[in-house]
Protein backbone atom coordinates (compact mmCIF):
# COMPACT_ATOMS: atom_id res chain seq x y z
CA UNK A 1 0.00 0.00 0.00
CA UNK A 2 1.36 3.43 -0.93
CA UNK A 3 2.02 6.11 1.68
CA UNK A 4 -0.89 8.21 0.40
CA UNK A 5 -3.23 5.21 0.53
CA UNK A 6 -2.05 4.38 4.06
CA UNK A 7 -2.60 7.99 5.09
CA UNK A 8 -6.10 7.92 3.64
CA UNK A 9 -6.83 4.66 5.49
CA UNK A 10 -5.59 6.13 8.76
CA UNK A 11 -7.87 9.12 8.27
CA UNK A 12 -10.88 6.91 7.50
CA UNK A 13 -10.23 4.76 10.57
CA UNK A 14 -12.54 7.02 12.59
CA UNK A 15 -15.40 5.00 11.06
CA UNK A 16 -14.44 1.98 13.17
CA UNK A 17 -12.62 3.75 16.01
CA UNK A 18 -14.17 3.57 19.47
CA UNK A 19 -16.40 6.54 20.19
CA UNK A 20 -16.50 8.55 23.39
CA UNK A 21 -19.36 9.68 25.59
CA UNK A 22 -20.32 13.30 26.16
CA UNK A 23 -22.85 12.69 28.95
CA UNK A 24 -23.45 16.34 29.86
CA UNK A 25 -24.81 18.93 27.40
CA UNK A 26 -22.05 20.58 25.40
CA UNK A 27 -22.90 23.92 23.81
CA UNK A 28 -22.05 24.08 20.11
CA UNK A 29 -20.52 27.01 18.27
CA UNK A 30 -23.33 28.14 15.96
CA UNK A 31 -22.64 30.10 12.79
CA UNK A 32 -25.34 31.29 10.45
CA UNK A 33 -28.95 31.55 11.55
CA UNK A 34 -31.05 28.73 12.98
CA UNK A 35 -34.79 29.35 12.43
CA UNK A 36 -36.42 30.48 15.70
CA UNK A 37 -39.19 27.88 15.25
CA UNK A 38 -36.69 24.99 15.35
CA UNK A 39 -37.10 23.85 18.96
CA UNK A 40 -36.57 20.22 19.93
CA UNK A 41 -34.09 17.35 19.85
CA UNK A 42 -32.57 15.37 17.00
CA UNK A 43 -31.89 11.85 18.32
CA UNK A 44 -29.43 9.65 16.42
CA UNK A 45 -28.29 6.05 16.86
CA UNK A 46 -25.46 3.99 15.43
CA UNK A 47 -22.47 1.76 16.23
CA UNK A 48 -19.86 3.45 18.40
CA UNK A 49 -17.75 0.84 20.23
CA UNK A 50 -15.87 -1.60 18.01
CA UNK A 51 -13.39 -3.21 20.39
CA UNK A 52 -13.43 -4.27 24.04
CA UNK A 53 -10.16 -5.25 25.68
CA UNK A 54 -8.21 -7.26 23.13
CA UNK A 55 -11.29 -8.31 21.14
CA UNK A 56 -12.82 -6.55 18.14
CA UNK A 57 -16.00 -6.82 16.09
CA UNK A 58 -15.73 -8.04 12.53
CA UNK A 59 -18.63 -6.06 11.05
CA UNK A 60 -19.45 -2.35 11.29
CA UNK A 61 -23.10 -3.15 12.13
CA UNK A 62 -21.88 -5.05 15.23
CA UNK A 63 -20.44 -2.06 17.11
CA UNK A 64 -22.15 -1.31 20.40
CA UNK A 65 -24.79 1.41 20.23
CA UNK A 66 -23.75 5.00 20.93
CA UNK A 67 -26.73 7.36 21.02
CA UNK A 68 -26.24 11.08 20.53
CA UNK A 69 -28.49 14.10 20.39
CA UNK A 70 -28.59 17.70 19.20
CA UNK A 71 -31.01 19.87 21.18
CA UNK A 72 -32.18 23.15 19.65
CA UNK A 73 -33.17 25.87 22.11
CA UNK A 74 -33.70 29.50 21.11
CA UNK A 75 -31.01 29.50 18.44
CA UNK A 76 -28.49 27.50 20.48
CA UNK A 77 -27.53 23.84 19.98
CA UNK A 78 -26.45 21.44 22.73
CA UNK A 79 -24.77 18.10 22.09
CA UNK A 80 -24.56 14.99 24.24
CA UNK A 81 -23.91 11.28 23.73
CA UNK A 82 -24.09 8.08 25.77
CA UNK A 83 -23.54 4.42 25.15
CA UNK A 84 -26.73 2.38 25.31
CA UNK A 85 -26.50 0.62 28.68
CA UNK A 86 -27.85 -2.66 27.30
CA UNK A 87 -27.31 -6.07 28.85
CA UNK A 88 -24.88 -6.75 26.01
CA UNK A 89 -22.90 -3.61 26.82
CA UNK A 90 -22.80 -4.40 30.53
CA UNK A 91 -21.68 -8.00 29.97
CA UNK A 92 -18.94 -7.07 27.51
CA UNK A 93 -17.59 -4.23 29.64
CA UNK A 94 -17.63 -6.34 32.81
CA UNK A 95 -15.72 -9.14 31.05
CA UNK A 96 -13.41 -6.66 29.28
CA UNK A 97 -13.95 -8.61 26.07
CA UNK A 98 -16.73 -9.30 23.61
CA UNK A 99 -18.79 -12.20 24.98
CA UNK A 100 -22.13 -11.61 23.20
CA UNK A 101 -22.47 -12.58 19.54
CA UNK A 102 -23.59 -10.06 16.93
CA UNK A 103 -24.68 -10.14 13.28
CA UNK A 104 -21.17 -10.51 11.85
CA UNK A 105 -19.24 -11.65 14.93
CA UNK A 106 -19.88 -15.06 16.46
CA UNK A 107 -18.52 -15.47 19.98
CA UNK A 108 -17.64 -18.92 21.28
CA UNK A 109 -17.80 -20.45 24.77
CA UNK A 110 -15.23 -19.42 27.34
CA UNK A 111 -12.20 -21.70 26.75
CA UNK A 112 -11.99 -22.23 30.51
CA UNK A 113 -15.42 -23.90 30.66
CA UNK A 114 -15.57 -27.64 31.19
CA UNK A 115 -17.12 -30.02 28.63
CA UNK A 116 -20.54 -29.98 30.32
CA UNK A 117 -20.70 -26.19 30.35
CA UNK A 118 -19.70 -26.09 26.69
CA UNK A 119 -22.36 -28.62 25.73
CA UNK A 120 -25.00 -26.58 27.57
CA UNK A 121 -23.88 -23.42 25.80
CA UNK A 122 -24.27 -25.11 22.42
CA UNK A 123 -27.72 -26.36 23.37
CA UNK A 124 -28.88 -22.93 24.51
CA UNK A 125 -27.69 -21.34 21.27
CA UNK A 126 -29.67 -23.70 19.02
CA UNK A 127 -32.46 -21.16 19.36
CA UNK A 128 -30.55 -17.89 19.49
CA UNK A 129 -31.32 -15.45 22.28
CA UNK A 130 -30.23 -12.46 20.30
CA UNK A 131 -28.17 -9.55 21.50
CA UNK A 132 -29.95 -6.43 22.79
CA UNK A 133 -27.34 -4.15 21.25
CA UNK A 134 -29.97 -1.90 19.64
CA UNK A 135 -27.83 0.22 17.32
CA UNK A 136 -30.01 0.93 14.28
CA UNK A 137 -32.72 3.47 15.08
CA UNK A 138 -34.79 5.32 17.68
CA UNK A 139 -38.49 4.42 17.54
CA UNK A 140 -41.61 5.41 19.46
CA UNK A 141 -44.44 3.37 20.99
CA UNK A 142 -47.04 5.56 22.70
CA UNK A 143 -44.89 8.19 24.37
CA UNK A 144 -42.00 5.80 25.06
CA UNK A 145 -38.80 6.03 23.01
CA UNK A 146 -36.66 2.98 22.33
CA UNK A 147 -33.30 2.18 20.82
CA UNK A 148 -34.02 -0.60 18.37
CA UNK A 149 -32.40 -3.00 15.94
CA UNK A 150 -34.06 -6.03 14.34
CA UNK A 151 -34.24 -8.48 17.21
CA UNK A 152 -36.79 -9.26 19.91
CA UNK A 153 -35.29 -6.80 22.41
CA UNK A 154 -35.62 -3.02 22.49
CA UNK A 155 -34.22 -0.67 25.14
CA UNK A 156 -36.21 2.28 26.41
CA UNK A 157 -34.28 5.54 26.70
CA UNK A 158 -34.90 8.99 28.08
CA UNK A 159 -34.79 11.18 24.94
CA UNK A 160 -33.45 14.18 26.88
CA UNK A 161 -30.77 12.65 29.14
CA UNK A 162 -30.10 9.58 26.92
CA UNK A 163 -30.22 7.38 30.01
CA UNK A 164 -31.17 3.74 29.37
CA UNK A 165 -34.38 3.06 31.31
CA UNK A 166 -34.77 -0.68 30.79
CA UNK A 167 -35.14 -3.50 28.33
CA UNK A 168 -38.39 -4.73 26.79
CA UNK A 169 -38.84 -8.10 25.10
CA UNK A 170 -41.32 -8.15 22.21
CA UNK A 171 -42.00 -11.82 23.03
CA UNK A 172 -43.67 -10.82 26.29
CA UNK A 173 -46.33 -8.96 24.31
CA UNK A 174 -46.54 -10.51 20.84
CA UNK A 175 -45.23 -13.77 19.37
CA UNK A 176 -42.25 -12.64 17.26
CA UNK A 177 -38.51 -13.33 17.20
CA UNK A 178 -37.52 -10.39 14.99
CA UNK A 179 -38.97 -6.91 14.34
CA UNK A 180 -38.01 -4.00 12.12
CA UNK A 181 -36.41 -0.78 13.33
CA UNK A 182 -38.42 1.23 10.79
CA UNK A 183 -42.04 1.47 11.96
CA UNK A 184 -44.63 3.88 10.58
CA UNK A 185 -46.68 6.45 12.52
CA UNK A 186 -50.11 7.66 11.47
CA UNK A 187 -51.53 11.13 12.10
CA UNK A 188 -53.09 10.02 15.40
CA UNK A 189 -49.73 8.75 16.67
CA UNK A 190 -50.41 5.03 16.31
CA UNK A 191 -47.27 3.02 15.56
CA UNK A 192 -47.34 0.25 12.93
CA UNK A 193 -44.60 -2.35 12.70
CA UNK A 194 -43.76 -5.82 11.37
CA UNK A 195 -41.98 -8.83 12.78
CA UNK A 196 -41.16 -12.47 12.05
CA UNK A 197 -42.16 -15.50 14.11
CA UNK A 198 -39.72 -18.31 13.31
CA UNK A 199 -39.22 -20.41 16.43
CA UNK A 200 -41.44 -21.63 19.27
CA UNK A 201 -44.52 -19.82 17.94
CA UNK A 202 -46.31 -22.46 15.83
CA UNK A 203 -46.33 -22.11 12.07
CA UNK A 204 -43.68 -19.63 10.87
CA UNK A 205 -45.20 -16.34 9.72
CA UNK A 206 -44.76 -12.63 9.24
CA UNK A 207 -46.67 -10.54 11.77
CA UNK A 208 -48.06 -7.01 11.30
CA UNK A 209 -49.06 -5.16 14.46
CA UNK A 210 -49.82 -1.72 15.85
CA UNK A 211 -49.55 0.12 19.16
CA UNK A 212 -52.11 2.89 19.72
CA UNK A 213 -51.00 6.40 20.57
CA UNK A 214 -52.76 6.28 23.96
CA UNK A 215 -50.69 3.31 25.18
CA UNK A 216 -49.48 5.35 28.15
CA UNK A 217 -49.15 4.27 31.77
CA UNK A 218 -46.92 6.81 33.48
CA UNK A 219 -47.93 5.87 37.04
CA UNK A 220 -47.34 2.12 36.89
CA UNK A 221 -44.52 2.51 34.35
CA UNK A 222 -45.83 -0.29 32.17
CA UNK A 223 -44.47 -0.45 28.61
CA UNK A 224 -46.60 0.88 25.78
CA UNK A 225 -46.27 -2.52 24.07
CA UNK A 226 -48.71 -3.99 26.58
CA UNK A 227 -51.47 -2.54 24.34
CA UNK A 228 -50.13 -4.07 21.12
CA UNK A 229 -52.79 -5.15 18.62
CA UNK A 230 -52.30 -7.83 15.96
CA UNK A 231 -53.36 -6.67 12.50
CA UNK A 232 -52.64 -9.87 10.58
CA UNK A 233 -50.14 -12.64 9.90
CA UNK A 234 -48.80 -13.83 6.53
CA UNK A 235 -47.38 -17.34 6.03
CA UNK A 236 -43.90 -17.69 4.55
CA UNK A 237 -43.59 -18.26 0.82
CA UNK A 238 -40.76 -20.71 1.68
CA UNK A 239 -41.32 -22.37 5.06
CA UNK A 240 -37.67 -22.70 6.07
CA UNK A 241 -36.49 -19.55 4.29
CA UNK A 242 -38.29 -16.43 5.51
CA UNK A 243 -37.63 -13.21 3.67
CA UNK A 244 -35.36 -10.69 5.34
CA UNK A 245 -36.98 -7.26 5.60
CA UNK A 246 -35.62 -4.04 7.04
CA UNK A 247 -38.67 -1.85 6.41
CA UNK A 248 -42.10 -1.84 4.77
CA UNK A 249 -44.51 0.58 3.12
CA UNK A 250 -47.79 2.13 4.28
CA UNK A 251 -50.55 4.09 2.57
CA UNK A 252 -53.80 5.48 3.95
CA UNK A 253 -55.47 2.07 3.68
CA UNK A 254 -52.74 -0.52 3.09
CA UNK A 255 -49.56 -2.05 4.45
CA UNK A 256 -47.11 -3.02 1.68
CA UNK A 257 -44.84 -5.95 2.47
CA UNK A 258 -42.19 -6.95 -0.06
CA UNK A 259 -41.33 -10.63 0.45
CA UNK A 260 -37.99 -10.55 -1.26
CA UNK A 261 -35.67 -13.37 -2.36
CA UNK A 262 -33.05 -12.25 0.19
CA UNK A 263 -33.77 -14.93 2.78
CA UNK A 264 -32.83 -16.20 6.21
CA UNK A 265 -31.95 -19.90 6.30
CA UNK A 266 -33.58 -21.08 9.55
CA UNK A 267 -31.64 -24.35 9.75
CA UNK A 268 -28.35 -22.52 9.27
CA UNK A 269 -29.40 -19.99 11.90
CA UNK A 270 -30.22 -22.74 14.41
CA UNK A 271 -26.86 -24.41 13.86
CA UNK A 272 -24.69 -21.32 13.38
CA UNK A 273 -23.21 -21.54 16.86
CA UNK A 274 -22.27 -25.21 16.40
CA UNK A 275 -20.76 -24.56 12.99
CA UNK A 276 -18.70 -21.58 14.15
CA UNK A 277 -20.25 -19.13 11.65
CA UNK A 278 -21.92 -15.77 12.19
CA UNK A 279 -25.61 -15.02 11.77
CA UNK A 280 -24.90 -12.85 8.74
CA UNK A 281 -23.79 -15.95 6.83
CA UNK A 282 -27.29 -17.39 7.28
CA UNK A 283 -28.70 -14.86 4.80
CA UNK A 284 -28.76 -15.80 1.12
CA UNK A 285 -30.02 -14.20 -2.08
CA UNK A 286 -31.94 -16.60 -4.33
CA UNK A 287 -31.68 -14.85 -7.69
CA UNK A 288 -33.78 -17.56 -9.35
CA UNK A 289 -36.83 -16.91 -7.15
CA UNK A 290 -39.40 -14.11 -7.48
CA UNK A 291 -40.32 -11.11 -5.35
CA UNK A 292 -43.83 -11.26 -3.88
CA UNK A 293 -45.67 -8.05 -2.98
CA UNK A 294 -48.35 -8.33 -0.31
CA UNK A 295 -51.06 -5.71 0.20
CA UNK A 296 -52.80 -5.80 3.59
CA UNK A 297 -55.78 -3.64 4.53
CA UNK A 298 -54.71 -1.64 7.58
CA UNK A 299 -58.19 -1.55 9.05
CA UNK A 300 -59.50 -5.08 8.38
CA UNK A 301 -56.23 -7.03 8.39
CA UNK A 302 -57.33 -8.78 5.19
CA UNK A 303 -54.71 -9.47 2.51
CA UNK A 304 -55.64 -8.43 -1.04
CA UNK A 305 -56.18 -11.68 -2.94
CA UNK A 306 -54.40 -10.56 -6.12
CA UNK A 307 -50.92 -12.02 -6.47
CA UNK A 308 -48.46 -9.25 -7.29
CA UNK A 309 -44.90 -10.21 -8.11
CA UNK A 310 -41.71 -8.86 -9.66
CA UNK A 311 -38.22 -9.95 -10.63
CA UNK A 312 -35.74 -10.50 -7.82
CA UNK A 313 -34.05 -7.58 -6.11
CA UNK A 314 -32.83 -6.72 -2.62
CA UNK A 315 -34.42 -3.90 -0.64
CA UNK A 316 -33.58 -2.39 2.73
CA UNK A 317 -35.35 0.96 2.73
CA UNK A 318 -38.78 2.02 1.54
CA UNK A 319 -39.07 5.73 0.71
CA UNK A 320 -42.84 6.36 0.71
CA UNK A 321 -46.15 4.99 -0.61
CA UNK A 322 -49.58 6.37 -1.45
CA UNK A 323 -52.82 5.66 -3.31
CA UNK A 324 -53.90 7.38 -6.51
CA UNK A 325 -56.81 6.69 -8.87
CA UNK A 326 -57.22 3.02 -7.98
CA UNK A 327 -53.49 2.31 -7.71
CA UNK A 328 -51.05 1.79 -4.85
CA UNK A 329 -47.75 3.52 -5.63
CA UNK A 330 -44.68 2.69 -3.57
CA UNK A 331 -41.06 3.78 -3.87
CA UNK A 332 -38.06 1.94 -2.50
CA UNK A 333 -34.32 1.57 -2.92
CA UNK A 334 -33.32 -1.64 -4.64
CA UNK A 335 -30.14 -3.59 -5.35
CA UNK A 336 -29.53 -6.34 -7.87
CA UNK A 337 -27.54 -8.41 -5.37
CA UNK A 338 -27.06 -8.79 -1.62
CA UNK A 339 -23.45 -7.58 -1.44
CA UNK A 340 -24.19 -4.38 0.48
CA UNK A 341 -23.62 -6.05 3.87
CA UNK A 342 -20.25 -7.36 2.68
CA UNK A 343 -19.04 -3.79 2.18
CA UNK A 344 -19.33 -3.18 5.90
CA UNK A 345 -17.11 -5.99 7.15
CA UNK A 346 -14.27 -4.13 8.83
CA UNK A 347 -11.61 -5.86 6.74
CA UNK A 348 -13.32 -4.50 3.61
CA UNK A 349 -13.64 -1.01 5.06
CA UNK A 350 -9.91 -1.05 5.80
CA UNK A 351 -9.07 -1.43 2.12
CA UNK A 352 -7.59 1.50 0.26
CA UNK A 353 -10.69 3.41 -0.89
CA UNK A 354 -9.63 3.70 -4.54
CA UNK A 355 -8.84 -0.02 -4.63
CA UNK A 356 -12.11 -0.84 -2.90
CA UNK A 357 -14.12 1.14 -5.45
CA UNK A 358 -12.22 -0.44 -8.34
CA UNK A 359 -12.62 -4.02 -7.10
CA UNK A 360 -16.27 -3.64 -6.11
CA UNK A 361 -17.73 -2.01 -9.19
CA UNK A 362 -19.60 -5.22 -9.85
CA UNK A 363 -21.58 -4.54 -6.68
CA UNK A 364 -25.03 -3.23 -7.39
CA UNK A 365 -25.58 0.48 -6.81
CA UNK A 366 -28.65 1.59 -4.83
CA UNK A 367 -31.46 2.49 -7.24
CA UNK A 368 -34.61 4.41 -6.27
CA UNK A 369 -37.50 2.68 -8.01
CA UNK A 370 -41.27 3.07 -8.19
CA UNK A 371 -43.76 0.20 -8.37
CA UNK A 372 -47.45 0.67 -9.15
CA UNK A 373 -50.09 -1.89 -8.15
CA UNK A 374 -53.54 -1.62 -9.79
CA UNK A 375 -56.39 -2.18 -7.32
CA UNK A 376 -59.27 -2.17 -9.80
CA UNK A 377 -60.27 -5.32 -11.73
CA UNK A 378 -57.50 -5.87 -14.29
CA UNK A 379 -57.85 -5.28 -18.00
CA UNK A 380 -55.32 -4.90 -20.80
CA UNK A 381 -54.01 -1.57 -19.52
CA UNK A 382 -53.31 -2.07 -15.82
CA UNK A 383 -51.26 1.03 -14.91
CA UNK A 384 -53.23 4.09 -15.92
CA UNK A 385 -51.15 6.78 -14.21
CA UNK A 386 -49.47 9.19 -16.60
CA UNK A 387 -46.42 10.21 -14.55
CA UNK A 388 -44.65 6.84 -14.37
CA UNK A 389 -43.28 4.15 -16.69
CA UNK A 390 -43.92 1.40 -14.12
CA UNK A 391 -45.94 -1.46 -15.57
CA UNK A 392 -48.26 -4.17 -14.29
CA UNK A 393 -49.05 -7.03 -16.66
CA UNK A 394 -51.83 -9.57 -16.16
CA UNK A 395 -50.66 -13.18 -16.50
CA UNK A 396 -52.69 -16.25 -17.45
CA UNK A 397 -52.95 -17.39 -13.83
CA UNK A 398 -54.49 -13.96 -12.93
CA UNK A 399 -51.33 -12.86 -11.15
CA UNK A 400 -49.88 -9.44 -11.95
CA UNK A 401 -46.23 -9.08 -12.97
CA UNK A 402 -44.81 -5.68 -12.01
CA UNK A 403 -41.82 -3.80 -13.39
CA UNK A 404 -40.51 -0.59 -11.83
CA UNK A 405 -39.88 2.94 -12.98
CA UNK A 406 -36.33 4.02 -12.08
CA UNK A 407 -36.35 7.43 -10.42
CA UNK A 408 -32.73 7.92 -9.35
CA UNK A 409 -29.47 6.02 -8.83
CA UNK A 410 -26.84 6.23 -6.12
CA UNK A 411 -28.81 7.25 -3.03
CA UNK A 412 -29.44 5.57 0.32
CA UNK A 413 -30.82 6.38 3.80
CA UNK A 414 -33.90 8.09 2.33
CA UNK A 415 -36.14 10.48 4.21
CA UNK A 416 -39.19 12.61 3.44
CA UNK A 417 -41.31 15.35 4.96
CA UNK A 418 -43.14 12.89 7.22
CA UNK A 419 -46.34 14.91 7.00
CA UNK A 420 -46.50 13.43 3.51
CA UNK A 421 -45.98 9.85 4.65
CA UNK A 422 -48.69 7.65 3.03
CA UNK A 423 -49.61 10.58 0.76
CA UNK A 424 -48.64 11.61 -2.75
CA UNK A 425 -45.37 13.49 -2.49
CA UNK A 426 -42.74 15.10 -4.66
CA UNK A 427 -39.42 15.20 -2.80
CA UNK A 428 -37.18 12.82 -0.92
CA UNK A 429 -33.74 13.24 0.60
CA UNK A 430 -30.81 10.91 1.22
CA UNK A 431 -27.06 10.41 1.21
CA UNK A 432 -25.30 10.02 -2.12
CA UNK A 433 -23.14 6.90 -2.29
CA UNK A 434 -20.99 5.22 -4.90
CA UNK A 435 -19.18 1.86 -4.78
CA UNK A 436 -18.05 2.60 -1.25
CA UNK A 437 -19.49 2.40 2.27
CA UNK A 438 -18.73 6.09 2.76
CA UNK A 439 -21.46 8.68 2.03
CA UNK A 440 -20.11 11.86 0.47
CA UNK A 441 -23.09 14.14 -0.22
CA UNK A 442 -26.64 14.91 0.81
CA UNK A 443 -29.15 14.95 -2.04
CA UNK A 444 -32.67 16.24 -2.64
CA UNK A 445 -34.56 14.44 -5.40
CA UNK A 446 -37.51 15.99 -7.26
CA UNK A 447 -39.64 13.08 -8.49
CA UNK A 448 -41.74 15.28 -10.78
CA UNK A 449 -38.81 16.69 -12.75
CA UNK A 450 -36.40 13.79 -12.11
CA UNK A 451 -33.72 16.30 -11.09
CA UNK A 452 -31.69 16.57 -7.91
CA UNK A 453 -29.65 19.00 -5.84
CA UNK A 454 -26.68 18.20 -3.61
CA UNK A 455 -24.86 19.59 -0.61
CA UNK A 456 -21.21 18.64 -0.31
CA UNK A 457 -18.17 19.72 1.65
CA UNK A 458 -14.66 18.46 0.98
CA UNK A 459 -13.25 15.85 3.39
CA UNK A 460 -16.67 15.43 5.02
CA UNK A 461 -19.16 12.60 5.44
CA UNK A 462 -22.78 13.50 6.22
CA UNK A 463 -25.28 11.25 7.98
CA UNK A 464 -28.86 10.42 7.00
CA UNK A 465 -30.68 13.73 6.39
CA UNK A 466 -33.71 14.42 8.58
CA UNK A 467 -36.43 16.80 7.34
CA UNK A 468 -38.16 19.05 9.88
CA UNK A 469 -41.13 21.00 8.51
CA UNK A 470 -41.63 24.65 9.40
CA UNK A 471 -44.77 25.12 11.52
CA UNK A 472 -46.60 27.27 8.94
CA UNK A 473 -45.45 25.34 5.87
CA UNK A 474 -47.66 25.49 2.80
CA UNK A 475 -45.41 23.62 0.37
CA UNK A 476 -43.89 20.17 0.88
CA UNK A 477 -40.28 21.32 1.00
CA UNK A 478 -40.73 24.23 3.42
CA UNK A 479 -38.51 23.37 6.35
CA UNK A 480 -34.93 22.40 7.12
CA UNK A 481 -32.66 19.41 6.61
CA UNK A 482 -30.51 18.32 9.57
CA UNK A 483 -27.43 16.10 9.21
CA UNK A 484 -24.51 15.40 11.53
CA UNK A 485 -21.24 15.61 9.61
CA UNK A 486 -17.86 14.07 10.41
CA UNK A 487 -14.52 14.59 8.68
CA UNK A 488 -11.42 12.47 8.23
CA UNK A 489 -9.36 15.67 8.57
CA UNK A 490 -8.40 15.93 12.27
CA UNK A 491 -8.17 19.70 11.85
CA UNK A 492 -11.85 19.85 10.87
CA UNK A 493 -14.19 19.40 13.86
CA UNK A 494 -17.54 17.62 13.45
CA UNK A 495 -20.68 19.68 13.03
CA UNK A 496 -24.41 19.57 12.48
CA UNK A 497 -25.40 21.22 9.21
CA UNK A 498 -28.76 22.97 8.78
CA UNK A 499 -29.96 23.31 5.19
CA UNK A 500 -32.93 25.25 3.86
CA UNK A 501 -34.86 22.34 2.34
CA UNK A 502 -36.29 24.41 -0.53
CA UNK A 503 -33.08 26.01 -1.81
CA UNK A 504 -30.85 23.25 -0.40
CA UNK A 505 -28.41 25.91 0.74
CA UNK A 506 -26.66 25.87 4.11
CA UNK A 507 -28.18 28.38 6.53
CA UNK A 508 -26.39 27.35 9.74
CA UNK A 509 -23.97 24.93 11.27
CA UNK A 510 -23.31 23.93 14.86
CA UNK A 511 -19.67 22.94 15.38
CA UNK A 512 -19.05 20.45 18.20
CA UNK A 513 -15.83 20.51 20.21
CA UNK A 514 -15.67 16.75 20.78
CA UNK A 515 -15.49 13.54 18.77
CA UNK A 516 -18.69 12.43 17.01
CA UNK A 517 -19.25 8.99 15.51
CA UNK A 518 -20.89 8.09 12.18
CA UNK A 519 -24.50 7.10 12.88
CA UNK A 520 -27.33 5.30 11.08
CA UNK A 521 -30.88 6.46 11.82
CA UNK A 522 -32.91 8.61 14.17
CA UNK A 523 -35.76 11.07 14.53
CA UNK A 524 -36.60 14.62 15.56
CA UNK A 525 -38.70 15.22 18.68
CA UNK A 526 -40.44 18.59 18.79
CA UNK A 527 -40.36 20.57 22.03
CA UNK A 528 -44.03 20.56 23.04
CA UNK A 529 -43.52 23.39 25.52
CA UNK A 530 -42.96 25.95 22.74
UniProtKB/TrEMBL annotation:
Belongs to the carotenoid oxygenase family. GO terms for molecular function: beta-carotene 15,15'-dioxygenase activity; carotenoid dioxygenase activity; metal ion binding. Pfam families: RPE65. This is Beta,beta-carotene 15,15'-dioxygenase-like. It comes from the Eukaryota. Fe cation binds at residues 182, 246, 317, 521. InterPro entries: Carotenoid_Oase. The gene is bco1l.
Amino acid sequence: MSKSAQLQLNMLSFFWRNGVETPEPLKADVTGSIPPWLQGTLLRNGPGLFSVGNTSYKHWFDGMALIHSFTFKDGDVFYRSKFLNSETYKKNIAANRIIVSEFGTMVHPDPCKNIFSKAFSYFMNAIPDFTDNNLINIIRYGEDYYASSEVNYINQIDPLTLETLGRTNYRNHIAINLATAHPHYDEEGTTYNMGTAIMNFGRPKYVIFKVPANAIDKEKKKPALRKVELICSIPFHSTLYPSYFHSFGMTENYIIFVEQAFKLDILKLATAYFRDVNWGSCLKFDKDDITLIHLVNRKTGKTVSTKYYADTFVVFHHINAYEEDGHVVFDLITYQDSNLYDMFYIHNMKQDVDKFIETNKEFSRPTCQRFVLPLTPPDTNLVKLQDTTATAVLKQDSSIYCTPDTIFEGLELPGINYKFNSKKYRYFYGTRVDWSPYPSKIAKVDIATRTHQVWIEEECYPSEPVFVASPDAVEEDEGVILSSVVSFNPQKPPFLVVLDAKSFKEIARATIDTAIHMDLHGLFIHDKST
